[in-house]
Automatic annotation (TrEMBL):
It comes from the Bacteria. This is DUF192 domain-containing protein. It comes from Salegentibacter holothuriorum. Keywords: Signal. The lineage of its organism: Bacteria, Pseudomonadati, Bacteroidota, Flavobacteriia, Flavobacteriales. Pfam families: DUF192 (PF02643). PROSITE patterns: PROKAR_LIPOPROTEIN. The keyword Signal applies. Residues 1-19 form the signal peptide.
Amino acid sequence: MIRKSIIFAAVLTASLLFSCKDDNTTETTIETEEITFTKEGEATLLKPNGDTIKQIDIEIADNSYERETGLMYRESMEDEQGMLFIYNNEAPRAFYMKNTYIALDIIYFASDSTAVSFQKNAQPQDETSLPSGEPAQFILEINAGLADDWNIEVGDKIDFERID
């Protein structure tokens, strides 16, 4: 019985010693770099008659990881910038704003580069599905309000080129 009491006391003492928090420790904060815009191309938005609406610098998301990440974790984006998502085929698409900190206008373009639909003023952090409504192959994200400011309409076109 004494042996059990000694073992119990040793276990209790050890657990108390190892469970006490050292008040001299400090929490370490991990600093991460802000994600900044990287110009990978230029896009020109055009009226059906060929008149230029606007030319902007674009980042290009053309692989699974880039398309899944998109503009997540960005604190801001200039009005003359956007992100162009490129898919291999035309299909119904849907985006959402998880981990996206800036409000966006999302413009869906068909395989012939014609705008087929919009999701305007998509709200930060909202996980509601924002569907294309029509099949799309190219999707352009720009700051919220710019689609109206630039008078972009269904039927307008996008032309883009990569830069090296």
